[in-house]
Amino acid sequence: MSEERQGTRRSGGPRKAQEIFDATLDLLAEKGYEGLTIEGVAQRSGVNKTTIYRWWPSKGALLGAALIGARQLDFTPPDTGSLAGDLEALLHTVVTLLTTRPASDIAVSVLGAATQSPELAVHVRDFFADRIALEQPVFDRAVARGELPADTDITLLMDLLAGAAWVRVVLRQLPLEDDFAARTVGTVLDGARVRT
């Protein structure tokens, strides 16, 4: 992992950034967005609240930085040798996020809060833009192997896959079958229509 990803990424940050990010996500999982406070993060992380405010002027800004910079949500893009295998691995990452605590509590809290807070919604968009950038090598390799056209809308492709998991797990609250990722990737890549 690069030094940029280990700290606060692009904007620099205090020496104990990871402790601050971990405390932010832990409190979000425990108390939700309404219960998340910079004072609480300061107490839990052992960092003075003035240091936190110096870097992040609001809890929305702090949570946005934590979503991108925290170890808890970090991942390495897969390289299975095939587009289908890589997409299944990416979808498994999303499913794990949505079904394993505390990550699932964080994800649901952020989704709910982003609908109420325009400031947080901007930071959530930044998080998803960051994830797409991290996933880009998966699609570059697929284009090089001839599995995807160069003009593929990768954001739409990932939205279809991740959206299927979010709807099934969070909104419908249905269990996921063992072959969910493979079936979902197959449907998205191949389409659902009968070929003639």
Quick overview of this protein structure:
The chain is mainly α and 196 residues long.
Helix/strand layout:
Blueprint (H helix, E strand, L loop, with lengths): L2 H4 L10 H19 L2 H8 L3 H7 L3 H11 L13 H17 L3 H14 L1 H27 L9 H18 L8 H11 L6
Helix pairs in contact: 2-3, 2-5, 2-7, 5-8, 6-7, 6-9, 6-10, 7-8, 9-10
Overview of the molecule:
With 196 residues, the protein is mostly helical. Helix content is 69%, strand content 0%. The chain is built from 10 helices and no strands. The chain has helices spanning 3-6, 17-35, 38-45, 49-55, 59-69, 83-99, 103-116, 118-144, 154-171, 180-190. Helix 2 (17-35) runs antiparallel to helix 3, helix 2 packs across helix 5 (59-69) and helix 5 runs parallel beside helix 8. The longest helix has 27 residues, at 118-144. The protein is elongated. It starts with a helix and ends in a 6-residue tail after the last helix. The model is unreliable at 1-11 (pLDDT under 50).
Could you list some keywords that capture this structure?
196 residues, disordered N terminus, 10 helices, single chain, 69% helix
What is the helix fraction of residues, given as a range?
A: 55-70%
Secondary structural class: mainly alpha
The span between the termini is: 47 Å
Shape: elongated
Q: What count of helical segments does DSSP give? A: 10
Order of helices and strands: HHHHHHHHHH
- Strand fraction equals under 5%
pLDDT < 50 runs, ≥5 residues: 1-11
Query: Which value, in Å, is the CA radius of gyration?
Result: 18 Å
Kindly state the number of beta strands: 0
Major sheet size, sense and barrel closure: none
Mean pLDDT: 88
